[in-house]
Design brief:
Order of helices and strands: HEEEHHEHEHHEHEHEHEEHHHEEHHEEH
Strand content: 5-15%
Largest sheet: 7 strands, mixed
CATH class of the largest domain: Alpha Beta
Number of strands: 14
CATH superfamily of the largest domain: Type I PLP-dependent aspartate aminotransferase-like (Major domain)
Helix content: 25-40%
Structural class: alpha/beta
Shape: globular
CATH topology of the largest domain: Aspartate Aminotransferase, domain 2
Bound molecules: pyridoxal-5'-phosphate
Distance between the termini: 20 Å
Number of domains: 2
């Protein structure tokens, strides 16, 4: 595949942008080679500067769940562009958005819009600390809650991909209050809570982890979290930035029937424009300024263009009750077919999948936490990534990332992907 323009652009980008990218996960550090520069998209496909076409399995890391350039979203945004970009005043769009979120996620009493998942998570913890008057939090190894100081300890996503052991620029005073527990380890969790319960403001968790590959919660783990938080006056925060509106209308909460006190959103909620949100129990959200003294603000929060893209995307999902079944069927099909091919070819693998999240780990053992996720053979992943790229299939350039499926992904696209697995030699 010819990638001359991407290569040239990257050389220039490296002179002006750290690492040539505006977010580390876009770099090809783990897989080698140079990042591909995209210029346009259509449905399930993205096209690069050299006019190569790829089946898209990252979908902007989640937001493009409907596929790219969905007609209803495009029309809505085009109409809003002509009305106004931004006021810095309240708008009816924000009211509509809050009401739609509440109708899809029943335990949200109040919600505040922000501009990213990072902002949503750091603000949710601030609310939990303000509400409880306590300061420690528990987060899980390999989980990613954005790049705010307090979360950059044993984080997944780019931190894991780049194998950064000691994050720079963060005073230990800030992360001392962040306690780390392995995911899916009930004994370690219970012990940590028993030891620090009087100081714990919150436990924050990706209910289905998606930043160390896709790692499902084991039976009873989310229920245990719920119980420990209720029993000990600890705020349970579900980080549904990735899973919200993706796994079901009500996200992982609905799927597992475990309901958090505060929930954070991002990615799908903006339909491809920069949006995040945090919300939940009324008594907790009432701490947020100007109602309460937990300060949180944003010049572009609830931006009209971003709200329009988000509203159009969420409405589409809300109005198509079969969408999530269809997405799950795609996930199951890919998992089963790839498993069949790799097994026949004698390639050691584990495939984790839930709904439209799926990850391939080149190791024998089950992947249930960060330690097991780290056992994947990276040389095999590297080869696999480039083999698929050469076949016009774009995967996340890291074995620590989930793939995201869109509604636009067709059987033909999946069969092409499976054929590429067939022609792969480890
Ligand atoms: C992507 C992600 C974030 C951070 O969101 P940004 O919009 O990149 O700041 C937080 N939590 C989870 C679970 C995510 O997947």
């Amino acid at each position: 595949m010819k990638n001359d323009i991407s290569r040239t652009l990257f050389e220039v980008a490296e002179q002006h942008i750290p690492g040539g990218v505006n977010s580390p996960v876009r770099a090809f550090k783990q897989v080698g080679g140079t990042p591909i520069f995209m210029k346009r998209a259509d449905g399930a496909y993205i096209f690069d500067e050299d006019d190569n076409q790829y089946i898209d399995y990252i979908n902007s890391w989640g937001p493009m769940i409907l596929g790219h350039n969905h007609a209803h979203v495009v029309e809505a945004v085009q109409a809003q562009v002509k009305r106004a970009f931004s006021f810095g005043t309240p708008t009816a769009l924000e009211v509509a958005m809050a009401k739609l979120i509440k109708s899809m996620v029943p335990n949200i009493d109040m919600v505040r819009m922000v501009n990213s998942g990072t902002e949503a998570c750091m603000s949710a913890v601030r609310v939990a600390r303000g509400f409880t008057g306590k300061s420690k939090i528990i987060k899980f190894e390999g989980h990613y809650h954005g790049h705010a100081d307090l979360f950059l300890k044993k984080a997944g996503s780019g931190v894991a991909t780049l194998n950064i052991k000691q994050e720079g620029g963060i005073p230990t005073a800030v992360t001392d209050d962040t306690l780390i527990v392995p995911f899916n380890d009930p004994a370690a969790l219970e012990q940590m809570v028993a030891q620090y319960k009087n100081e714990l403001a919150a436990i924050i968790v990706e209910p289905v982890a998606g930043n160390m590959g896709c790692v499902l919660p084991q039976d009873g783990f989310l229920q245990l979290l719920r119980k420990l938080c209720t029993d000990n006056n600890i705020v349970l925060i579900f980080d549904e930035v990735m899973t919200g509106f993706r796994l079901s209308r009500g996200g992982a909460q609905e799927l597992y029937n475990v309901w958090a006190d505060l929930v954070t959103f991002g990615k799908v909620i903006g339909g491809g424009l920069p949006v995040g949100a945090f919300g939940g129990r009324k008594d907790m959200m009432s701490c947020v300024a100007p109602l309460g003294n937990v300060y949180q603000a944003g010049t572009l929060s609830g931006n009209p263009l971003a709200m329009t893209a988000g509203l159009a995307t969420l409405s589409e999902l809300n109005n198509s009750p079969k969408a999530y079944e269809a997405l799950n069927a795609k996930g199951v099909y890919l998992r089963e077919k790839m498993h069949e091919v790799f097994t026949r070819k004698g390639i050691a693998h584990t495939i984790n999948q839930l709904g439209s999240m799926i990850s391939v780990h080149f190791c024998e053992d089950a992947v249930v936490d960060f330690q097991t996720a780290s056992k994947g053979n990276n040389d095999t992943f590297k080869k696999f990534f480039h083999h698929l790229l050469d076949n016009g299939i774009y995967l996340p350039p890291s074995a620590f990332e989930s793939w995201f499926l869109s509604i636009a992904l067709s059987d033909g696209d999946m069969n092409k992907t499976i054929a590429a697995c067939e022609s792969f030699t480890a």
